[in-house]
Write a structure and sequence with these properties.
The protein is α+β, with helices and mostly antiparallel strands. The chain has 21 helices and 30 strands. β17 and β18 form a beta hairpin.
């Protein structure tokens, strides 16, 4: 007995030590995590932390200086390109390593390796499914890794981008190799995995991740279903390819050069797929007369991710210098998508925002010019119905054609590997089939042809754009930017402004790719590429300004046919301001970027009100149609609009593809004699009165009737960790205003640049901070300013030694050596 008593305490100690150093389910080893020296506490940054460093790295060829502002914005000065991009990679990893790792894992379909399983119930089928596995499979079946490998081959074939990639990867890996467990970003400790070495394909994956985010949306399948279910007249009326009254990106009346290619004629044979199977439906799936449950009083039905840019000629500004503005609207996550910095090397001096995980500056300015981006939204992804003969062959031009099979091994933390076999065709990978059905459950094999699958080199565009000295250099640079297609706005110190609808596009016959096509014939293959020099563009237009906000690119005189997923509310408002009251200085443009006037409200509030109340009420006139943060009238309108829009279309269409809000308000304002949907609109209005009142009453009772509380704009941590996120930010706007701050999307980087011959004045802000460490005081540095519509003056150091600038707080000196 005495012997057992002696053993009990050591045995208990051993058991406790083993348990504390073992993971249980999704929990990390608590012993390691709670270790006060090496665990979570090691990530708590001291408020007086000294970031000054003087060190040596073997990979650096010549001394490098890095000057940090008090906001931790680095200004890198290197004597050669290798050292510049090596240092950029090192700094990106120093501040954002976990984010870079997690985003490229997501791009590659590797989230299950570090997250494991997450079981949910499919709302449509009622079946349980592993959401993480579904995500990883979808990434593989879209061909994300395949696309990245193709682009990597192209990037590494060019010596300029090869050196960029290699040096950047070296810098990241040098930092990773220096880490001990105590130095790991906190998310690694919480999720119980370690950093893996970086490689060039990860950078290619990040660029494809952005291409997927910006060109991944498609309506081919639901439009194909609706085309069969509706009459041609109703289909064309509800789903026009272009909204009447759209103000194109390239000003109407711009003269385009004669095309070098003729638009091909549409095949006369039957080349369209028809989904007449039992599972295919474009309706909500609800019994007639039954409403979809409204879980929230407000749903933002704005189209697109969104972005704004514009440039104003110096002829219309107070200083006589052109002003360029850009605010790309992307996911509002933490760590932020962007990382602000300046890069200096021989022949290069550029400032702006970079993507952690990729070298160069994506949006910004150099000592000669500035540029900004918005998504172009021309359709570059098409679907084909594949006729399988057996598991190894499909039919093409009347003959058996073999599938090119790609085996994807998907690892799941704590579970056996999942092996997926993906069939590749002449049209691309079979994304959906009987083993992985499409969202509409058409029961078809659907292959996807996507411009992002090509081996493109957008990194070369960034390399050249960062170094461009004039308009010619700018155009030569962006011609390498093929996918995602972007509207590039431009201004330079010589006073020029320009806009390009840039990307690689295919010369299509009318309607090609708008609907799912038969994949058993070469008649539906993509044709020749349109020469990119013939992409729509304009230099110094007579109107004195240019603007894009994801609206249609051109008027009908452009000689090539295209379709896309365009939106108009923000474009209407931006052009209204530019046309009637051009902002003449930087402050005026700041106000414009933060504008929250809703064209949607202005065009529909009174009409819906009259339908509900049978007459126009005083409330219709007692509001300026602004979606300000504290506005209760904004909440009232947006709630009313959301329920009206849902009630109007829900019984006939899916929530993912109803007639657009722009088209809906046009129908709403059609003269009653010509409005075929007037009775439906009256019925919808009559049925939402009580739900609107009830919803607003509940909000009032809960003390959350202010618009910002209802909308709940949030900065969500990439791993969905609430403690590392910000919610209920007091910011106005919505998807239908210039300041398009939605619940989880919004202005990811606001930038304003004024360039004259003697100086550059630039301002910017993004929602987040330079550090990706939730324990750092630099994690959310910029959030309050971003919410309040305030900006930071951007410190653009000239190509001289300026480390004594008062805004410089810390200095790194990196020398060659061990």
């Amino acid at each position: 007995m005495r012997f057992l008593k002696v053993l009990i305490l050591p045995l208990i100690t051993i058991v406790i030590v083993v348990l504390l150093n073992s993971s249980v389910g999704s929990l990390p080893p608590l012993g390691k995590l709670l270790d006060p020296v090496n665990g979570w506490a090691a990530n708590a940054e001291s408020t007086d932390n000294d970031f000054n460093r003087d060190f040596s790295l073997a990979e650096v060829k010549q001394p490098v200086s890095v000057w940090f502002e008090g906001r931790m914005v680095p200004h890198i000065r290197a004597a050669n390109d290798h050292d510049l991009y090596f240092t950029q990679g090192y700094i990106h990893a120093y501040f954002r390593l976990w984010q870079m790792d997690f985003q490229t894992r997501a791009a590659a379909g590797r989230i299950g390796e570090v997250v494991g399983e997450k079981w949910i119930v499919d709302k449509k089928t009622g079946q349980r499914k592993n959401a993480i596995l579904e995500f990883d499979r979808y990434q593989r079946r879209k061909g994300m890794v395949y696309a990245a490998e193709n682009s990597l081959n192209t990037m590494e074939a060019d010596p300029r981008t090869k050196e960029m990639l290699d040096a950047y990867t070296e810098g990241i890996n040098n930092y990773i190799q220096s880490l001990r467990y105590k130095d790991y970003p906190l998310e690694y400790k919480l999720m119980n995995y370690r950093p893996e070495p970086w490689n060039n394909v990860k950078t290619a994956l990040l660029l494809k991740y952005m291409a997927d985010d910006l060109t991944g949306y498609t309506e081919d399948i639901p439009l194909t279903i609706l085309r069969d279910q509706l009459t041609k007249e109703e289909f064309d009326y509800l789903f026009p390819q272009r909204i009447k009254g759209s103000v194109p990106v390239i000003p109407a009346g711009t003269k385009f050069d004669p095309p070098s290619l003729q638009m091909p004629p549409a095949p006369t044979d039957s080349i369209w797929t028809h989904f007449r199977t039992k599972g295919a439906t474009a309706t909500s799936g609800l019994p007639s007369g039954q409403s979809a449950p409204c879980l929230l009083p407000f749903t933002d039905y704005s189209t697109g991710i969104g972005s704004n840019n514009w440039a104003i000629s110096g002829a219309h500004t107070a200083s006589g210098a052109p002003i360029l503005c850009n605010d790309p609207h992307l996911g509002l996550n933490l760590p932020s998508l962007w990382f602000e910095m300046q890069l200096q090397a021989p022949g290069l001096n550029v400032y702006g925002v970079s993507l952690p995980g990729a070298p160069g500056v994506i949006i910004g300015f150099n000592d000669s010019l500035s540029w900004g981006l918005t998504n172009n939204y021309r359709d570059v992804k098409d679907f084909y119905s594949i006729e399988a003969i057996d598991k190894d062959f499909y039919r093409f031009d009347g003959k058996p054609s073999p599938f090119d099979k790609r085996i994807e091994v998907i690892k799941i933390k704590g579970k056996p590997d999942f092996v997926d076999t993906i069939d590749y065709t002449v049209h691309g990978p079979v994304t959906f089939d009987e083993h992985f059905p499409d969202p509409q459950h058409t029961n078809r094999k659907l292959a996807m042809q996507w411009m992002a699958h090509r081996g493109t080199n957008e990194l070369l565009a960034v390399y050249l754009l960062n170094r461009a000295k004039d308009y010619i250099g700018f155009t030569e640079a962006i011609l390498h930017f093929q996918c995602p297609a972007q509207n590039f706005v431009y201004a330079d110190r010589s006073g020029n402004i320009a806009m390009w609808g840039q990307g690689q596009f295919v010369n299509k016959w009318k309607d090609q790719g708008r609907y799912v096509m038969e994949g058993n014939t070469s008649k539906t293959l993509w044709g020749a590429d349109i020469p990119m020099t013939e992409n729509p563009h304009v230099l110094n237009p007579p109107q004195g300004y240019l603007a894009s906000a994801n609206q249609v690119t051109t008027d009908s005189t452009y000689p090539y046919w295209y379709n896309g997923y365009f939106s108009d509310f923000r474009a209407w408002r931006i052009n209204e301001i530019l046309r009637n009251s051009l902002p003449k200085d930087i402050v005026g443009n700041m106000k414009m970027q933060n504008d929250v006037v809703s064209i949607l409200a202005r065009e529909s509030a009174a009409k819906i009100d009259s339908l509900i109340n049978d007459e126009r009420t005083p409330e219709s006139d007692n509001w300026d149609f602004t979606l300000k943060p504290e506005s209760k009238k904004a909440t009232g309108f947006q709630t009313t609009w959301s329920l009206f829009y849902q009630k109007l279309w829900e019984e006939r269409f899916t929530e993912t593809l109803m007639p657009s809000p722009e088209r809906t308000i046009q129908i709403l304002n059609t003269d009653s004699m010509d409005n075929p949907y007037l009775s439906r609109m009256k019925l919808a209005a009559s049925e939402i009165g009580k739900p609107v009142t009830d919803s607003l009453s509940i909000l009032q009772k809960n003390g959350s009737l202010e618009w910002y509380n209802v909308k709940n704009t949030s900065l969500t941590h990439l791993a969905k960790i609430p403690a590392f996120s910000y919610d209920h930010l007091k910011i106005g706007g919505s998807g239908n205003t210039i300041n398009a701050a939605k619940s989880n999307h919004g202005p990811s980087w606001r930038m304003i640049v004024e360039l004259d011959k003697d100086s550059i004045r630039a301002y910017g802000v993004y929602p987040g901070g330079q550090s990706g460490d939730p324990g750092s005081k630099y994690y959310g540095t910029f959030v309050n300013n971003w919410v309040d519509g305030k900006y930071y003056r951007l410190l653009f150091l000239r190509n001289v030694d300026q480390q004594d600038n008062k805004m410089i707080k810390y200095t790194w000196t990196i020398k060659p050596g061990k």
